[in-house]
Amino acid sequence: MSRDFDNIEDIFKESFSDFKVEPQSQVWNKVEQNLKWKRFWHFHYRRFNIYYLFLLVVAGIGGMLLWNMNNQHKYFTQNNETDEKTYQSEIISNENKVVSKNNVRQPNKKQKTKKTDNKNRKHIRKTTELTDKIKPDSLKITGTNKPKNTIQVKKQPMNKNYQYPKKTNTAPADDNTLNIKTEKKDSTLIDSIKKEPKQKSKNLQSDTICLQIPAIHPKLNQLQLDTIAYTAYALKYDSMKTPMLNNQETKHWMAELFYSPLVNQANRTTANHMLKNNVLLRSDANSQQVSYTLGAKIGYHLKKWDVQTGLAYTQINENFSYQYQEYDIYSKYYYEHAFSEIQVTDTVGWLQFGKESAYDNMAPVMHSRTETIHDSTLTMVYDTTSRVTTYENPNTFSYLEIPVLFGYSFNNRKFDYTLHGGIIAGILLNRKGKTISLSDNSAVSVESEPMQNTSLIMYGSLAMHYKFSQQFGIVAEPYIKTQVNSLFESSYPISQKYNSFGVKIGLRFMF
Amino acid sequence: MQKLIAQCKKHNKKAQKRLYERYASLMLGICMRYARDRSEAEDMLQDGFVKIFMNIEQYCGAGSFEGWMKRIIVNTAITFYHKNCKHFHHEDVFEWQETISDTCNDTEFTREELFSVINKLPDGYRMVFNLYAIEGYKHKEIAEMLGIEENTSKSQYSRAKKIIQQKLRALRKIQQPVSAVV
Questions:
Q1: What's the rounded mean pLDDT across residues A158-173?
Q2: Minimal Cα–Cα distance from A39 to chain B, Å?
């Protein structure tokens, strides 16, 4: 490496051209982990797996949920729309008026409810030529609280471009017509509300209400029929009754998709004193990683009680980190007792034998370990060299779980809280990784150990269910699981059980 | 080798591990030159191999595979440099600027000594020196890669070279009495 300093490029180039440094063993594990995640987010249809399926299902249910929520505020659709704008008006039913006279409802409560539920009083105005046919039956209103024969409509300023005639008129009352009258000067007369005959469905009470307002279009300068629809929900709100569909109580069934990260704690015990060290080695070598469960449940509830079952896939992840020192026989020495006594002056370094001894002509290894085996006639001394093998790999145990759970619910309008308890049958699907052998503490495959194919797990949880709608909701469920029987067969001298804690996050569909 | 690359393109884990085992030490050697310490070098190596495996499909066989991998590793080192730029503090380099004799006696240096010299350079200097002197990039290319002016690259290289010469000279002074005794 003799070089002039002015030409240091060559010195460095030559010196570092084959510069190699051995990386630590865990670097590959990190590369592997990173690759796993990168590839997971780098979607390709060829790698479609259960995780993608889960995401797809979650996205699908989320989409349905949004669609369902949007539909709740979509009051009507009409095909031949010429002009469509949204504005607000206030509807006060005469039923409400009567009740307020009786002081049943507190005025402040009424005021508060009106503020919070403003969005329910949105309606869509449609303008149609007078000559056109208006189809009130296309405007459907659902709800339980039917308007009385006469309702009072107090309209806030509508479309400023229109001129609404102010007059008072009372339409004749019959089965299909609701009488409307406006008493205040600043309100606009609604000529009539046509009420469609009641729907015959038991579970869904539907009314179709169409408000037709003659108004003058500013540009066309002609009288047009302004059609307004109100939902029964709005009316129901104004009548201060709790919105509730008739069919709410009939939803006894639920289906749920869930995912749960979980952490485990492994309890290893043995009654055999000789294996205590092995158990300690196992506990030191195995560190628990975040595991997961994903699955689906179906349940039936009646009043406050429910029962659930389903299928779940659980993967328990551990990291096996272990260093095992193995001894290879480097050379052996032996002597027969019959000849003479042999002095071993240095059992670690140099072994000295008497002249009668025999050895295999190999020099002993410095700082090595010797193994001495005696029998009645012969003493064998093995000089060994040691090598350390480092194991750093993940252990995984996969289970298919079938739960049978019972629950008791406490619920209010938007939340359900359910205490669940029960048992889970776990079926061992797969196991991969390393463990420590009982015989010589070497690292062996977990598949060499006699594991039970089924395990029994006790389960307890508190499920919090938030209802987006009558059908959809999300669930957060912290839980604990305790394994009842050992992972290993009963004949195996070591017992291993898992305690787990996790939080299920799921989507619930009620039907 | 072609078979191994083909298997890696199919994301075969065993092939990926074999490829890693084959080149990891060489690539870590490169990373060590760019990194401040071994831990950072191993992080670079990790990110570099992830990029290699994620982009191996783009390797079409033109040119040497080792060269392709080295380029990715060097680019990863540059990414690390950019990430660390905000934490980068210029060392006072002027303390090293002493007059250097034009002629120096032939002296042998071990790789460890050269490595320690290069490792103690300020981050920016080390990057430029590595890219120019060892990888063989031109100043224009280095300027583009590091997002600096071409003249900055030249001046940083010049300063880095002076520092290295100074340090090597100091090392040689230490070595000479030892070799005299031996």
A1: 45
A2: 8
- Give yes or no for residue A356 having a pLDDT over 70: no
Q: What does the longest C-alpha to C-alpha distance in chain B come to?
A: 60
Chain A residues inside the 8 Å CB shell of B166: none
**Taking the C-alpha atoms of A72, A78, A79 and A84 in order, what is their torsion angle to the nearest 10 degrees?**
-100
Buried b (16+ CB within 10 A) or exposed e, B157-175: bebbbbbbbbbbbebbeee
In DSSP terms, B156 is beta-bridged to none
Q: For position A403, what pLDDT does the model report?
A: 92
> What SS3 class is residue A269?
strand
- Which is more confidently placed, A458 or A225? A458
A148, two tokens: 């009385």
- Which stretches of chain B sit within 8 Å of chain A by CB? 11, 13, 16-17, 20-21, 24-26, 28-30, 32-33, 38, 41-42, 45-47, 49-50, 53-54, 100, 102-104, 106-111, 114-115, 118, 132-134, 161, 164-165, 168-169
Mean pLDDT on B26-40: 87
Helix (H, G, I), strand (E, B) or coil at A73: coil
Residue B17 structure tokens: 């591990």
pLDDT given at position A482? 92
Instruction: State mean pLDDT over A391-409.
Output: 90
**DSSP-assigned states of every residue in B101-118:** -S----B---HHHHHHHH
Query: What is the per-residue pLDDT across B126-143, written as a single tens digit (0 to 9) for each?
Result: 889 888 888 888 898 888
- The minimum CA-CA distance between A21 and chain B, rounded to whole Å, is 5
Query: What residues contact A18, with CB distance under 8 A and at least 6 apart?
Result: B26, B29
Sign of CA dihedral B134, B138, B141, B145: positive
Residues of A in contact with B53 (CB under 8 A): 31, 35
Dist CA B105 CA B103 (whole Å): 7
Indicate whether A81 pLDDT > 60: no
Question: What CA–CA distance (Å, rounded) separates A484 from A498?
Answer: 9
